Amino acid sequence: MTSIIKVNTFQDAGGNALFSSDGSGNVTLSSADMKMTPAFRASLSSTQSISSDTDTLVQLDSEQIDTDSCYDTSTYKFTPNVSGKYYFYIQLFTDFTTTQFGGSTIYLRKNGSTVARDDANYGSSDYWGSRRLSFIVDANGSTDYFQVYVRQGGGVGNQIYSNGTAWTYWQGYKLIGA
To answer: Is 49 helix (H, G, I), strand (E, B) or coil?
Structure first.
């Protein structure tokens, strides 16, 4: 035997709405603590050249998702407006093709300081392909901001490619229960 309970709003013992339904199966969460937002995804809209031996801000200037208007396409910053732990995933499709190339590093920076990095070193051969970095970090929900930087170890004419939204992008969201 099964039972069915029909309600529009589910409340806690204090009368606070936890979630509601519109009657068509669409549920709206009432508490920000229960949502994986803010969330964003930004990509590189065109090929970006990377200078040798210089930390370069990756110009992720095209938004696919920005739930709370926290990503700025002109400064390439994510400034979350809700405190909590955030998961970030970065993918850069690189073409670092010189015989002098010594390696590359992807940086996730919080307020200008590195909080995560991924290093790859190469000998005298060409390198192209995807580089990835993922990390979980705290944000205060008011002044903390995040940006992606890259550095390559030698040569000129090295690039990060866009290919629409598929090759070079950065995304992140607030974790629930962390």
So the answer is: strand
